[in-house]
Every structure is written in structure tokens, then in C-alpha cells.
């Protein structure tokens, strides 16, 4: 554990003007507040914040950050208050300490709403000052280094999984690869001990057997570059165990089949030297196609810059090489922390980095803790691809991202209005996955809305959150519209006219905040007709029941203008279309399920509230299902498709359900205008020489 004077000396080494008295006061304050508390290792608890402060000195952080590290556990684990810290160390330190403590109780799989609120507060604090995140990452790294002292296996695994899912991706996103690698390795050792021991053992063997070979390759690289006037530091190292294990899993290969265990790093003085070194290496040794990446011209979103390549060295040995400047190397190890060093003369990086802005937008759209944690983890995934707008703006997305993800990355409104996409000039489906270097032009329409089906293929948290928010808002709006027509019908049964005063009193009696809440409750059958009548006119339902005159629905309720699948569901069993006589089944907490009046499955709705519905004359079309038995001869399927086309019916789904020698049976889902349109198609099928039988199902 660092002594008080040692911590001060470390800070003074890189910042001679540091406030020594303030650091001493924070050190003593932390020791006094934690008092006799012990860690699982048996060490005094105050040793932990002091070690975290020591990690901050390794990053050459400013005095405010050092003090925050010393105090980061005092509010949570002692009787200290934020107000006390603000009084003694200033408002900025108090704000940072408050931000650091917010994620302490987060568990990756929790369903606790308080956990989501803690994560919200932490991310908001982080967006204002990234030093909050740096201290938290150092806090977690030190806790991982001492994880083995915890006796509970379940607790160790929970902490390790949390580190792998949340903290290691956060470290990667701010470019702190040293922290990320060590946290992944320590978590991997706890979560997969057998795999960890096996890989470490094999790496030790390779290191022992190939030590001279690694030195030889490094020397050959250095000599080749020196021959062309380039001064370079060259070093070789084996990849860390978790990286190897993940690649083995992704590629489905054994350790023996891994050919890129050893990687080399070449450090030069300038960007020009980086490209010159790359050219000399490629001229000397054969490069492996598909393995070159230029993160200097297109840096990663966390600021990482480097050239990556792979070559065949010597006797068919595959070698990975990273080429960067010394400054890039410091940035690659410590990321945004490198920008926060005291020597930057007061300049600070943009606390609202692009990916953090995405997270903040997700905070505004997540409905519950599970959704928030899901979206934030998605937003922090590591593997990225680069795609461009037609004007050349660069956007980074996770591997597997689609055109819809790209649209939302550019702007939420563009995502909401996307109707098509041109990728490299070709018109392709919106679900198309993007590749590195794609030029993506999103086609939009003001009349377009996000589709629920998009949730099946989008990969980014921002896109998923925006779509879910829009769907929820649309659902509430249309459910309220459905509730409005039901409300008007129920209110019409009462003996008196219902005005604004009666409605306001009804809301108070039902303990609802506003009219929209009431309409949504009606639309989802959260309130019965009798309860609504009594709320509007107290005692009315009892009086009517006593007189045996309780009024029932006397007119059909129109569903015109509402979207199937939002305020109501069209039943899959009977596929109602405009023109059918329809009824709705209302079950508590669910949307209305619409059936044709002769649907055989209505018997299962005896426990539901039935309401009479109507389409109205100008209702939009729906999907109908037809079963057609075709003669088994060439061209009959084409004839059926031709009939559909002639009657302008779009095929949504086509399935072969039965095949025997003389006949094939198909079920077709068609978009039709109404019953008359559907019957025209069926009659045309029955008249065809290719069709033995056609029926609606």
C-alpha cells in the first residue's frame, strides 16, 4: 500500500504545482472515515482507495481525480455525505465522487429498477466528466486483482461476469486497452478456470520454445527498417489468454490450429514513418490478404490509431504486426486517460463523445432495467465496422449492423423515416448487413414509420431503443383512440349527457392522472363498463341492474384508421378482412382480438368481454389466407401467381402444405382490399384449368 508521502511524491513528479496539502487532507480523511473496516483479504479497507489513487498517478491524472479516487467509497461505505465532501474538497470533487459510486451495485443480470436508476445517474455523470469513468475503471481493476480473496464462488463469478459484460467494454470504448485486457484476463480466469489454465500452460510452452525465435523475428524487422533509415522499437508478445480463447470459439478451431499467437509491435517517430515501415515490410515479406487495417486514416471511435497487418515470415510462420507512433501507443494503452494528463495545459477531451451521446439518448427511451442494460451493452460492443454517407461522413457501427442501424446512427428521424437504402449504388433491403467501407444512402419518406419487424435484425442499442420508443408511443396513441370510441359508446348508454366536469370527477374516483390514461385502460379492458359508468354517474350501473335494464352495446364500434397489430390484433385463425362481420374479444391487459363472426375459435373467448366492431366503408385492406389445390403439372403455380398479379393482390407468404402425385396444396397469404376483392380472386382460381379447388381459410 502506498504511504501518504509516496502518493504525494508520485503526483509531484509529473505535476510540481500540485496542491500537496489538499492531497494530504484527502488521504487522512479516507483513512479516518474507513477506520477499522477490513477487506476480504484482511487488509485495511482504506488500502483499496489508496491503491486506486496510485493507479490514477500511473495515468498522470490531475489532483481532482486523485482526490476522487481516495474518496470514492466514503459515501457508500461510511457515514460521509456528499455535502461534507463538497464543503471540504469543493463541488467538482463532490460531483465526481457521487458519479463514481452510482455503478457500485449494478449487476449485469439484475431486474431491480434501482439498478437501472444507478446506471442512468452514472452514465449522466460520466457524460459530464469522463474522469468519473476513469476512476471507476481503476476501482474495478483493483477489485479484480483481489477477487481471489472472496470466499463465495457465486459472488466471484457474479463480479467477473459483470466485469466482462460492463466494465471491460467500457474500458475498450475509451481506448484503455491495458485495463480492458487485464480485466478480461482476470474475469476469464474466474469464469473459465480450466480453459484459462490450459491456454496459459500452452503459452508458457510456446514462450519457452520460441523465445529465441521471437527475438530473431523482432531483430529482423528492426534490421530491415534500419536499412531504409527508419529508427524503430520492435517488440513481440503472445496474445493474452482471453483473446485466444475467444478466437478459438469464433473460428471453431483448436489451439494447435491457431496461427497468430504471437504479435509484434513496431513504434516509430511519425505518421510518415508508419506508412514507410509498412511499405518496407510488405516488400520484404508476403502479406496475408484481408488482414490489413488502417486505423490511422480511419481511427476507431475511441480514438485508437494504428496500422495492422499480417505477413508470412521465414518458414511459413504467420506474424501479426502493429505499426504506430510512440504517441499513438500511449493513446492505445490509456485511451482518453492520456488526454486528461495534467500536462495538457487545461485542455480537456470532449466529455460528450459520440458513443456517450448515444448512451444518453438510450437513457431517455429505455422502459425498464433489463431494456436499459441490454441497450447499453449493445452500444459498448467491441467489434466495429466503418461505413460512409454519400458526402463522406464516417460512422462506426458494430459488426453485423444493418442499413437501419446506420440510419439511426446518422439521425433518429432518418431512421424513423427510412424506406429503402442504396449501398454502393445498389438498391438492397433495409435488413442488409453492412461491410467495411460501404457507402450508404438512406432513402426516406415522411409518411414512413418504424416497423416492429425491424427489431428482429437491428444490432445497435440506439436503433433498438428508438424503434421501441416509437412503437410504444404509437401503441399508446392508438390504444387511446380505440378507448375513445369505446368510451363514447359506453357513455351514450347513460341517461345523462357526460360533460368535462363529470369526466374530471370520474378520473379522481378512478385515481387516474389524465384522460389518456383512462382511454388506454378502456382500450386494454383494465376497467369494466359498469365501473366506468359508476365513475361517470355514481350508482348508475347498480340502479340499471336492479331494474333489469342494464344497457348493452347498441351500435358497432368502428376500427377505421387504426393499425392492425397496434391497438388491435387481427386473429390468425380466421384472417378477417374489410367487409366481414367482426367482433372483438377484450381480455384484461391485452389488446382487442378481432375475429369474424363465424370463427370457430370464438368459443375459446367465453371468458372475454365481447364487443361489436365494424370496418367502415373506406377501411384499408388486410391479409387473407387462401388454400388452393393445384394439379401437379408444370406451370400451374405460375398460373396461380398470375391470377394474384392480375387482381393486384400482393403475396405476403406462400407455403406448400401437402404434396401427392396428382395434386399440390398451397396456402397463400394475400393483401386484399376487402371481402369482394378476395372473392374475385377465389372465383378466378376456381375458374382456372390449373386449380382443382380454392377456398378461404
Automatic annotation (TrEMBL):
<protein>
    <recommendedName>
        <fullName>GTP pyrophosphokinase rsh</fullName>
        <ecNumber>2.7.6.5</ecNumber>
    </recommendedName>
</protein>
<dbReference type="Pfam" id="PF02824">
    <property type="entry name" value="TGS"/>
</dbReference>
<feature type="domain" description="TGS">
    <location>
        <begin position="383"/>
        <end position="444"/>
    </location>
</feature>
<feature type="domain" description="ACT">
    <location>
        <begin position="625"/>
        <end position="697"/>
    </location>
</feature>
<dbReference type="Pfam" id="PF19296">
    <property type="entry name" value="RelA_AH_RIS"/>
</dbReference>
<dbReference type="InterPro" id="IPR007685">
    <property type="entry name" value="RelA_SpoT"/>
</dbReference>
<dbReference type="Pfam" id="PF13291">
    <property type="entry name" value="ACT_4"/>
</dbReference>
<dbReference type="InterPro" id="IPR004095">
    <property type="entry name" value="TGS"/>
</dbReference>
<dbReference type="InterPro" id="IPR006674">
    <property type="entry name" value="HD_domain"/>
</dbReference>
<dbReference type="InterPro" id="IPR043519">
    <property type="entry name" value="NT_sf"/>
</dbReference>
<dbReference type="InterPro" id="IPR004811">
    <property type="entry name" value="RelA/Spo_fam"/>
</dbReference>
<dbReference type="InterPro" id="IPR045865">
    <property type="entry name" value="ACT-like_dom_sf"/>
</dbReference>
<dbReference type="InterPro" id="IPR045600">
    <property type="entry name" value="RelA/SpoT_AH_RIS"/>
</dbReference>
<dbReference type="InterPro" id="IPR003607">
    <property type="entry name" value="HD/PDEase_dom"/>
</dbReference>
<comment type="function">
    <text>In eubacteria ppGpp (guanosine 3'-diphosphate 5'-diphosphate) is a mediator of the stringent response that coordinates a variety of cellular activities in response to changes in nutritional abundance.</text>
</comment>
<comment type="similarity">
    <text>Belongs to the relA/spoT family.</text>
</comment>
<dbReference type="Pfam" id="PF13328">
    <property type="entry name" value="HD_4"/>
</dbReference>
<dbReference type="Pfam" id="PF04607">
    <property type="entry name" value="RelA_SpoT"/>
</dbReference>
<dbReference type="InterPro" id="IPR033655">
    <property type="entry name" value="TGS_RelA/SpoT"/>
</dbReference>
<dbReference type="InterPro" id="IPR002912">
    <property type="entry name" value="ACT_dom"/>
</dbReference>
<feature type="domain" description="HD">
    <location>
        <begin position="45"/>
        <end position="144"/>
    </location>
</feature>
<dbReference type="InterPro" id="IPR012676">
    <property type="entry name" value="TGS-like"/>
</dbReference>
<dbReference type="InterPro" id="IPR012675">
    <property type="entry name" value="Beta-grasp_dom_sf"/>
</dbReference>
